[in-house]
Amino acid sequence: MRNQSPDIKRRLRVVTDRAATRTQLSDVDQPAKHIDTRSSGWPEKLFHSFKVLLGNHRTMGDANAPINPFAPSGIPSNQTLGSMPVDGKEVLFRLEHVGRRFGVGEVVIEALRDIDLTVYAGELLIVLGPSGSGKTTLLNLLGGLDRPTSGKVYFRNRELTALTDMQLTVYRRHHVGVVFQFFHLVPNLTAKENVQLSAELVPRPLDPDAVLAWLGLADRADHFPSQLSGGEQQRVAIARALVKDPEVLLCDEPTGALDFTSAKKILGLLCQLKEKWHKTVVLITHNPAIAVIGDRILRLRSGEIVDIQANPHPLPAEEISW
User: Fold this and answer.
1) Distances (CA, A) of 166 to 19, 229, 294
2) What does residue 280 show for φ and ψ, rounded to 5 degrees?
3) How far apart (Å, rounded) are the C-alpha atoms in residues 159 and 157?
4) Percent helix, strand, coil in the chain (nearest 5)?
5) How distant, in Å, are the alpha carbons of 124, 154, 244, 295, 319 from that of 315?
6) How many CB atoms lie within 10 A of CB 63?
7) pTM of the prediction?
8) What are phi and psi of 110, to 5 degrees?
C-alpha cells in the first residue's frame, strides 16, 4: 500500500489469511494459482490478494492485468467512451426491458419487471419505494453486482450484460462507488486506512487526506470505526467510495441507520457531490421526504416503475424534514 506503516498490514493479515485459500486470476485467460501469505514477502501478497478479490486493474506498464473494458486503447482507465445525448443530456445508463427473477420452479419472485430507464450523467436520481419494491435489485444491476434475468443494461453505450465476470469487476472498480446503509467499514482499520485501502484499487485515486478533510473528518482520520458516531462512519464510507473518483455513486438507503441531524448532513454531502463534483448519484430510499432533493424521482412498486417525475427545483437538504 502506498506509504503505509506495517501496522495496517499486520491488522489485515487475519482477513487475508482467509483470502489466501481462494484462487486468484492474474488475467482472464491465465491459469489459477494460490497466494501464500505465510511465505516471505507476505505484506505485498497481502494487498495483492485484496486486489485479486476485488479485481485487478491495468496500470501503466502492467501488461498482465485485465483491461478496463470501457477504456479505449491509449486512454487512461478512469476515462470512458462517450455516449449519445438524449434531449441534450448525456446518457450514463440505459436499461431496456430489464427483468430480474429469483427462485426456481413454482417459487419465483419477480423483483423487477420490464424496466425501461435512462440515467443521465450528473443527475441526482431518487429511487423511491417500499420494502420489496425492487430498489436494491435495480441498484445492484446498475453497479454490476448482479445480472438481469432478461433485458439489457448499458453503461455509456457498453452492454454490461455482455461482459464477463472479470470485466464487470473491473467496471465496478473504476466507475462505481457504493455507499451502504450499514457502512461496512473494516473495523480494525482507522478511518484513513479504510479510505486508503479503496484508493489502492485504482491507478489514479484522489488524495485520501483531502477527501477526508472535505468531508469534515481531518481530525478523525486516525480513529477506528468503533470510535466514530454513525454519521461519521457514513462519511468515512462516502470517502471510501469517492476516493476512487468514480463517475457514479450508488447509495443504498444511506440515511436509514442515522438520526435526523446526521441524515440531513449526509444528504447535503451527496447533493454537493452532484453539484460541485459533478458526480452522478443514484439514491434509493423508502422515505418520501427525501425525494425532493433529487433532479428526478422514480417510484417503484412490486418491481415495476409506477412513475418518473422531473423535479426542476430540488430543495436543499437542510430545508427538508420528516
Assistant:
1) 17, 36, 33
2) -85, 125
3) 6
4) 35, 25, 45
5) 12, 30, 28, 10, 7
6) 9
7) 0.76
8) -90, 90
- Spatial distance between the Cα atoms of 233 and 224, rounded to a whole number of angstroms: 9
Indicate the residue type of 64: N
Cβ neighbours of residue 189 closer than 8 Å, sequence gap 6 or more: 8, 11, 12, 197, 224
Q: Which amino acid is at 164?
A: T
Q: How many Cβ atoms sit within 10 Å of the Cβ of residue 149?
A: 14
Q: How many residues does the chain have?
A: 322
**One-letter identity of residue 244:** K
- Cβ(34)–Cβ(134) below 8 Å: no
Please state, in angstroms and rounded to a whole number, the distance separating the CA atoms of residues 40 and 111.
48
Q: Calculate ∠ Cα 271-92-283, nearest 5°.
A: 35
Please choose, from the candidates 171, 182, 134, 188, the residue with its C-alpha nearest in 3D space to the C-alpha of residue 304: 134
Give pLDDT tens digits along the chain (322 positions).
455 445 554 555 444 443 333 323 223 233 333 323 333 343 343 444 344 444 443 332 333 444 444 443 332 344 344 455 666 789 999 999 999 999 877 888 999 999 999 999 999 999 999 999 999 999 999 999 999 999 999 999 899 999 999 999 999 999 999 998 888 899 999 999 999 999 998 999 999 999 999 999 999 999 999 999 999 999 999 999 999 999 999 999 998 888 899 899 999 999 999 998 899 999 999 999 999 999 999 999 999 999 999 999 999 998 998 8
Q: Collapse the DSSP code of 283 into the 3-class scheme (helix H, G, I; strand E, B; otherwise coil) and give the result.
A: strand
191 grid coordinates:
478511518
Query: How large is the C-alpha radius of gyration of the chain?
Result: 20
Asked if 126 and 294 touch (Cβ cutoff 8 Å), the reply is yes
